[in-house]
Write a structure and sequence with these properties.
Glutaconate Coenzyme A-transferase; alpha/beta; 12 strands; 2 domains
Length: 236
């Protein structure tokens, strides 16, 4: 059975259900699966839990799902570029599980690797540590240091964006667009990838494949705007 779908809506068929947990790759507007996000918006699925570094910007990317009130909870590490995100959170309309960025990445990696939890020093003594298990471990000098327990993250659906991919789902990401996507692909029950260029099987150098096809169930050709999040120009 082919993994390639003709449209983003086709690729998301049967996956956009109320109450599902969705992992979405990207950092700001870099490497976001914008076509798949739009398909999820158009599906009308609500009460979503979305795991992503941030929620993009107002009116674009994951910001579209916030505007339509389809998101119940965000598990994120950054909220700075989205005023609607900020408004809903401060107004008590949106749940937020806030994570240090490295902790979020490791929670996703752990979930994909089948690791239920891990201890980290990040967040000890801060609001992040409230309500979490604390445990002391000796360091190399024999001193005792306190760590907190963080749990692995998994998702019903993972949506990611790649630069190149083949019909088997082998993926290559380009530069910063790689960000969270490879580890998210391992942590989703179903992973859907939109790809700038779909190439014949065997044409990708195995040494440069970032995500093996075994982790990807569906693929669709990307048609993207590739917006710039913060445009800066030189005067004069």
């Amino acid at each position: 059975m082919s993994k390639i779908y003709q449209t983003a809506s086709d690729a998301m068929a049967g996956l956009c259900k109320d109450g599902v947990t969705v992992m979405s790759g990207g950092f700001g507007l870099c490497g976001i699966p914008e076509n798949l996000i739009a398909a999820m918006r158009d599906s009308g699925a609500k009460d979503l839990t979305v795991i992503s570094n941030n929620a993009g910007v107002d009116g674009f990317g994951l910001g579209q799902l916030l505007e339509t009130k389809q998101v119940k909870k965000m598990i994120s590490s950054y909220v700075g570029e989205n005023k609607e995100f900020e408004r809903q959170y401060l107004g008590g309309e949106l749940e937020l599980e806030f994570n240090p960025q490295g902790t979020l990445a490791e929670r996703i990696r752990a979930g994909g690797a089948g690791i239920p939890g891990f201890y980290t020093k990040t967040g000890v003594g801060t609001l992040i540590a409230e309500g979490k298990e604390h445990k002391d471990f000796p360091n190399s000098n024999g001193d005792v240091e306190t760590f907190i327990l963080e749990t692995g993250l998994k998702a019903d659906v993972t949506i990611i964006k790649a630069w190149k991919g083949d019909a088997e789902g082998n993926l290559i990401f380009k530069a910063t667009a790689r960000n969270f996507s490879p580890m998210m692909a391992t942590a989703g029950t179903v992973t859907v990838a939109e790809v700038d260029e779909i190439v014949p099987v065997g044409s990708l150098d195995p040494n440069f494949i970032h995500t093996p096809g075994i982790f990807v169930q569906r693929i669709v050709q990307a048609k993207c705007e590739k917006r710039i999040e913060q445009r800066t120009v030189r005067e004069g």
